[in-house]
Structure formats: C-alpha cells, structure tokens
Amino acid sequence: MARFAATCEDWDDWDKPTAPFRIHGDTWYVGTCGIAAILIKGDDGAVLIDSGTAKGSEVIAANIESLGVKLSDVKAMLGSHEHFDHVGGFARMQGLTGAPVLVGADAVEVIRTGKDDPRDPQTGLHAPMTPVTGPLRAVADGEVVNIAGVSVTGFATPGHTIGAMSWQWKSCDANGCITIVYGDSLSPVSADEYRFTDHPDYVAMFRTGITRMAGLECDMLITPHPSASDMIARAQTGTMATGPSCADYAASKTDALDGRLAKEAAPQ
Questions:
Q1: Chain centroid to CA 140
Q2: Model's pTM, two decimal places?
Q3: What are the backbone angles phi and psi of residue 209, rounded to the nearest 5°?
Q4: Phi/psi zone of residue 157: left (φ > 0), alpha (ψ -120 to 50 degrees), beta?
Q5: From the CA atom positions of the chain, what is the Rg in Å?
Q6: 3-class state of residue 153 by DSSP
Q7: H-helix or E-strand spanning residue 261
Q8: Alpha carbons 253 and 179: distance in angstroms, whole number
Q9: Longest dimension (CA), the chain
Q10: Does domain 2-265 have CATH number 3.80.30.20?
Q11: DSSP labels for 11-56?
C-alpha cells in the first residue's frame, strides 16, 4: 500500500504499473495506478473484478502471480461497466485463466461483440474491444455469486453506462469482518453531442442507480478509478478504512448529475 501511495498520482495513467497490496483480509488490489482491479481469494481459488485495458491486463496478470496465485486459480471474472479502460483486458485474461466473465445484463452484448452500446452516452468515443468468446453470462440485480469459496453480490447501478454493476462482499481479518463495496462509476460523462436532457428515461435510470448505491451496506468503498474514492490519499495513511461512504459517493454523483443537467439547460 505504501508503494501504491508513493508510485501513483491522482487520475494517473491507466496502464502505469504499481505493486499489488492487501486492502483487507483476503481482498487485494492488483490493478494499475489509474485503474483498479480487485482479487478476492477464496478457499478454492480466487475471483477477479475488472481487467483494466488490454495492456493494463498484463500488469494485473503479473500482480496476481506475484501474490503466489496461479492464473488458473482465478475461477471467475466480474465486470463493473462496459468500457475498455475497465474490461478491455477480459478477452486476454480469459485466455490466460479460462475463467467465465460475469457482468450486468445490459453489458453482455458489449462484452461479447466489443462494440459500444448505441444507448451509451459515450458511444463513439472508444475503439472496439477484443470480444470475449468464451463463457460469459449476465448477473441479475441482487444476485449472489458463489465461486471458489467467495461470495459476492451484484447490484445494478446504471448511469455511467446501462450495464453498470457494483459488487459487495464480506472481508474478514483478525479484527473482525467488514462489508466492502466496489462501487461502480456514476459520473455523467458523454460524447460532446450527447445531452442527458434529451433522454429523460436515461436520467431516471441514472437516479435509480445512484439511489441504489446510497442504500448499500458499505463499511469500505473502493472504486474502479482509484481517485474517485480518494484511494491514493487513503493509502498514504496506511489503511483503506477511511474515506467516503457509499452514501457520500452517491451524494457527490447526484451533485454531478444535477450540475450537468443545469449546464445543459443554461442559455448558450
């Protein structure tokens, strides 16, 4: 964690390497400086959340192995949202691990084809991803995934994308157990020509996702972009126990969405 704090900067390069570190109990950070990836060790293997970009997945694979975990011991890969900076490495990682990919229902087609969902506010901004050709399935909102002795619950938190999922699990150490939430991105980012005000149903869905985030049991929040939950500043203190709650995070995203809508409504 100290190396992460010393090596990485806020909103750092997506593919910049950093060493893995223990977040809590059997939960490990195995991502890059700019993009999170989480490894949860279980009795019968491990579960990986997110892969980073195709290039970033090389760092993630090396970080997993540096912890003494074989890539073949990764029994499932869970996805946050269907953008290349977080899941563009799934195809490569599936080739290395053989693990199935589990994502939100509305993310499946994007992961299978590698192409943007036309409903995505950021459609057209990203180059196609390498499609995932192996096992791939949707996780229902509120579904508990039990794999490799790891139990993780998926919650649909749409907004940043339609297929966005946040993940929640219990992590235990000698001092007891806490509930960790990998809270997906909820920022109202879009292509230049996109106006959220032209899509009221999308905005309503976005608010539903934010509300879902606010209500989650959440002792510790971590996020796909580390800086979105002050993870580098927290690492400088030597623990991830501090930082914003899921409710704090949701409130900040409500402000961001309201601000975006107000900007769109202002006279040009």
A1: 17
A2: 0.98
A3: -65, -40
A4: beta
A5: 17
A6: strand
A7: helix 246-265
A8: 21
A9: 58
A10: no
A11: T--TT-----EEEETTEEE-S-SSS--EEEEETTEEEEE---STTH
Q: In this structure, what are the phi and psi dihedrals at residue 190, rounded to the nearest 5 degrees?
A: -155, 170
Structure tokens at 213: 């985030």
CA-nearest of 108, 93, 8, 106 to 49 is 93
Per-residue pLDDT of the chain in tens (268 residues, 90 and over written 9): 999 999 999 999 999 999 999 999 999 999 999 999 999 999 999 999 999 999 999 999 999 999 999 999 999 999 999 999 999 999 999 999 999 999 999 999 999 999 999 999 999 998 899 999 999 999 999 999 999 999 999 999 999 999 999 999 999 999 999 999 999 999 999 999 999 999 999 999 999 999 999 999 999 999 999 999 999 999 999 999 999 999 999 999 999 999 999 999 998 7
Domain ranges of the chain: 2-265
DSSP for residue 125: S
200-214 and 246-265 helices, crossing angle to 10°: 160
The CA-CA-CA angle for residues 131, 132, 136, to 5°, reads 140
